[in-house]
Amino acid sequence: MAHHRSDVLAHAVTLLDTHGLSALTMRRLGAELGVQPSAIYHHFASKQALLAAVADEILARGARPRQAAAWPERLREVCAELRHAMLAVTDGADVVATVWAFGLGATAPVAEMEEVLADAEVPDELVAVASRTLVHYVFGHAFEEQTARQAVRLGAVERSLESLPDFDLGLDLVVDGLRARLA
């Protein structure tokens, strides 16, 4: 049975969510789809290309309509959406952050942050720094939260999940710092 690119991608996301990043191999993906691993390369030139597509799919599945008008709230919406999208899939934070760091994809959140900042007339020299500061905060928080939740669920550690830092409060600190810089 021939598989379309979207079928392969959907199964890759399911495999990631079910078994984690270490299980997402071309060989296993091919085996689960009933094809040789080389058939996967027909749709994705490399494992990195597959991971980039998976990261973009994670972000697409987490997309939410925007409601905020003011730039600070718009940034909060983008950041919250990014966090929720990554947390919705096992190892999602690891995949999305890695793909973004390698320049392979997952660029939509940063592009949207830059657009929000430019619309707010943030000076050009601060737009890239502010957007990267925000995305690094979201990646770091999501990675810590996801890792802690998985470790607790697997019984690897005994930790109260209440000890995780408050995402919204931390985000407010970053956004308030940017607002103060602009004042």
From TrEMBL:
DNA-binding annotation, residue ranges on this chain: 25-44
Keyword list, A-Z: DNA-binding, Repressor, Transcription, Transcription regulation
PROSITE patterns in the cross-refs: HTH_TETR_2
UniProt keyword annotation of Transferase present: no
All residue ranges annotated as the HTH tetR-type domain in the record: 2-62
One Pfam family matching this protein: TetR_C_1
Official protein name in the record: TetR/AcrR family transcriptional regulator C-terminal domain-containing protein
Species this chain originates from: Nocardioides furvisabuli
